[in-house]
């Protein structure tokens, strides 16, 4: 008679979905997204290979949930960065940008997944799509506040937010890919913060003749 696989310590009946997501985050951080498989994750947490099917019918649905989780964490980081935007709007906006960069530095594989085309049709995963839009809305609300305070130039706030996000994402990807000499994506000290501040200020001043007033 075959013995039932014993669940590993830390997994309890009822939180299988959470256990799968947590183990998957560890996996992609160490080994990347390509090698991730539901069968291997099931083995890691000590359940049968078919057990994850209750929550994730295929790898893409798991990836969508990881992207959703990533954007939830990303949104939290952005909100934390801009928490004093009503009092110190310019400084808070720069701090939000630094929070963006640090999130990507600390979670490079997850960040890449969040902005990849690994999920072919996000409309099939509305919670994932919503999480991404809510992250963007944090930036959008910051742009509106900065415009109201006369710090950013007037204009369509959504268009400006997309522009800032596009430039920021491009910079982050260059850092993660090691394409910028003298910038270490794993640095988290004060010199890294200073370079981030200079980068964001420079980007905003250059875009469209200078977004900062």
TrEMBL record:
Pfam families on file: TetR_C_33 (PF13305), TetR_N (PF00440)
Occurrences of domain HTH tetR-type (ranges): 14-74
Gene3D superfamilies to which the protein is assigned, alphabetical: Tetracycline Repressor, domain 2
Keywords: DNA-binding, Transcription, Transcription regulation
InterPro entries in UniProt: Homeodomain-like_sf, HTH-type_Tx_Regulator, HTH_TetR, MT1864/Rv1816-like_C, Tet_transcr_reg_TetR-rel_C_sf
Feature: DNA-binding region: 37-56
Molecular function terms from GO: DNA binding
PROSITE patterns with a match to the protein in the record: HTH_TETR_2
Transmembrane helix found in the keyword field: no
This protein's name: TetR/AcrR family transcriptional regulator
Gene source species: Leptospira ognonensis
Highest classification ranks of the organism: Bacteria, Pseudomonadati, Spirochaetota, Spirochaetia, Leptospirales
